[in-house]
């Protein structure tokens, strides 16, 4: 049986809510010390560390607010890859496999899991580099399928509903001022044009009043 | 193989068309009706818990699973096609209600001259038309469809503002539309900041913006069937989602409740129709695979194909209907044959805009928008661009979701689309970006068509539909003309433009979502030499087979197709019930 793998992340990212913004001014309301060990479903710990470091360069914590590590993006990516999407259960995967023009999109055989495995292998030691060295390495792979996918998944993990493992504490939604899924804006639609309507976000589970499972939990 | 007891009517597909035909037949007669839907059941409960961008927008949870079946595409007959492996420029739905569950709800009527396009173009241009143009008249007039449009508008509760009431122009509506007998059943939605900026700017430029007709209810409404639905809550989870309160008209909240009460209708989910069975020139039923993988033969007196556009044409091809004559596969080399011809999409470009105020763009409704038709059809064409037909220009407050709406940045603000500088710019512009969009007519050409792919198969081993489709210079010029207008409106709105814009490229792309308005393949017309179905949607060579949907459009119009699809479904149902059943045989 496969050895259980874990990724260690700062605790403040995965529990205590730290940011709350109305006018897009992030500030810390509460900081939780220590670290949390999160069990991994697909990545090895070494792979997860590379992904954490690369996502953090794509969406860094900086003066404009928190980044991918605090949002738990790696947990989102790990779960997506472990689920049906990662195994290409939603993609037409019959041959013949032939290269085609860009207008036909991605035509290769590799699944998202395989794209990550191979892409991460080429970034060995990435986590140990300085941020500017890391940026240089990422710039070199910018046109690759792996990087494009990693970039897309980073944004997904930043701004998805927390039910998918990313956007921990709805930190991404607070960062931009997205209020989460809500039943109704009947009272607000068309009123006070030009005034930002910003509220503390609610998650889908908050809204429907019971836990909601993502598609990645099925199959 | 299991053989079931015969029924009167077998319908392939449980979307808008399938359920509308079933409802008309089952409530007006005692005939037995079976509807076969390949996907699962759908309902309100799952829609509230489905307000999730990852599963529904990014992973396409309401769409057909491409792992099981897709289509292939190539740009010309000189190439071999490759499969569309992931979504995609269009996203057909699955499950009860089909694409009618996850649609946006834009409910324009087509223009009167779009039904007689070949005649209209000949009258204006004589012989100066491109040789490879294969546009055709429908053999149906706007006046014939007008009462049926009205029936569909009442059933769905469309909200809007009439611009032409029985020939009288009405301020605030679309002055270019065909005459309507009645004002819309419901008023327009309230206006958002984005819409009012667009309206003001386009009026200053002398255009005539009007509220986009919407199937998202603007107030509580009871339709003529006695179905009551609540007004829209503007939650913003609309296009690509099912409506959690039933405010957006969907087959499951307008038609299904009526069918559930009828004992003469059976709806079977998980049942994928593979063939229309036929002998001696008559359909004898359908062959399907049920949710347990069992092959089932369902004999029927009448068969109605009501699956999505491309699958309607494909089922005819797989069933070898119309051979050797009247409905045989189209051959672009000779121009002979009818099945598969006149494949069209729409010409759809957009201009990204950046505004100085936040839009609260996460609030909205699929149908909440403003449109102008000053460049639609034959109106306002700028001779400089040399185009034959134009299209709509519009803005939508359709409800933005956070992943998809993040990252739009005006050009020049960041070197890459990742990293600190980009993040800062993207945060700055989030909720202040939108786009001015467009959907223009797509003319039919000799070289754009559907046939069966020789290399790729679905999960049963049946050949996939193969699309041969590419843009011509005409579509690029259409997009160019529209883009010029979009730019001038953006400027008058005080918006920055650039970045986040799309034009018609060198070749048709299957990568980026455009719309699910693909049409043609089993087109309607006045002659079996040039069409697959007659003007009542009855197959020319098989009178007890009806093929209904956007597969019948001889070319594509500028508006969204659903309302016209519904009007033609009512026309087919009326002809079937009032004429065919009394004297079974060809109606034309």
Write structural notes for this entry.
Chain A is mainly alpha-helical and 219 residues long. Chain A contains 8 helices and 2 strands. Chain A has helices at residues 45-58, 68-71, 73-82, 112-121, 131-141, 145-159, 171-176, 204-208; strands spanning 6-10, 35-39. Chain B is an alpha/beta fold and 588 residues long. Helices cover 23% and strands 17% of the residues of chain B. In chain B, strands 1, 2, 3, 11, 12, 13, 14 and 22 form an 8-stranded mixed sheet that branches. In chain B, strands 8-16-17-18-15-21 form a 6-stranded antiparallel sheet, covered by helices on one side. A 4-stranded mixed sheet of chain B has the order 5-4-20-19, covered by helices on one side. In chain B, strand 9 and strand 10 form a beta hairpin. In chain B, helix 6 crosses helix 14. Chain B is globular and about 65 Å long. The two termini of chain B are 36 Å apart. In chain B, 61% of the residues are buried. The model of chain B has no long low-confidence stretch (mean pLDDT 97).
